[in-house]
Specification:
The chain contains 13 helices and nine strands. It is α/β, with parallel strands linked by helices. Strands 1, 2, 3, 4, 5, 6, 7, 8 and 9 form a nine-stranded mixed β-sheet that branches. Helix 5 packs antiparallel against helix 7.
Amino acid sequence: MEQGQPLVSIGLPTYNGGRYLAQSLEALLKQDYPNWELLISDNCSTDGTGDIARAYAARSDRVRYVRHETNLGARGNFNFVLREARGAYFMWAADHDLWEPTFISRCVEALEADPTAMLAYSQCLMIDEDGAPIEKIDDGFDFASPSALYRYKHILWYNIGSKIYGLARREPLAATGGFADVIAPDRLILAQLTLQGPFERVEGYLYVGRRNRPPETLGERIMRTVVALNPSRADERRVVDGPLLYLALRDLFMKALQDSTLTFIDKLDARVATLAAFHLKYHVASNLIRVLWGGSRALRQKRRIERWWGRE
């Protein structure tokens, strides 16, 4: 490994990712940052993933390939690469996405410039299955705010986009526990990190996310996610409706608030915000929110609470 610069660990969990894996690995190998390691964790793939990964591991001693003999689920695979990481900084890499050569170096620069920052991410260019551009995603949200409460509310209300694939400080990320056994565990991780420190956005469309699946309904996406995250619990979760799945996630959000260093008043504010967001976005019932909003329509309720919190 190169000396004099922080080690960056890249964890690439994959399952039957052979279609795009070589393209993703080429993009990682072309990073201009000199000090990195890459762990490819194969979740018992049945396609050509293993052959591709072995070939790249043979090309570079920075690349390590591990194949699991049973399917750990996406949750287990994502957590495995995080546990195995050694670097000061860590990033998950999807087996179908791409990165401009400066992605890692620019993110390291941003984190080195602000010791309080937990994560650095760039603007995102979305492409389709064939690599054609679809849209540019620029959230413009202020996750660099010094207010943990402000950052947390943004995670609650807005699409988290590709931030989970940003570059994070490994130790605070590992302290979150990684992917929990709930739906949308990436949103929980980001919420936990926002409570610890700001996120730095790197200007430029340095991250290229690929939409590698055909369009699906919300219900189809939820079921696909449930099965992929933890196959061993897929059958019991298929019969559970969406709000109950998100109830478990909401409870972990509330625990993260309890464990945080927010003041008592800010914790109270954040708890109400959490109840409201899960009530409106995921239809998780909340008697407190019902009392606060009475019989108002959902959209009107959302606008009212946003004005109360000074977000509009």
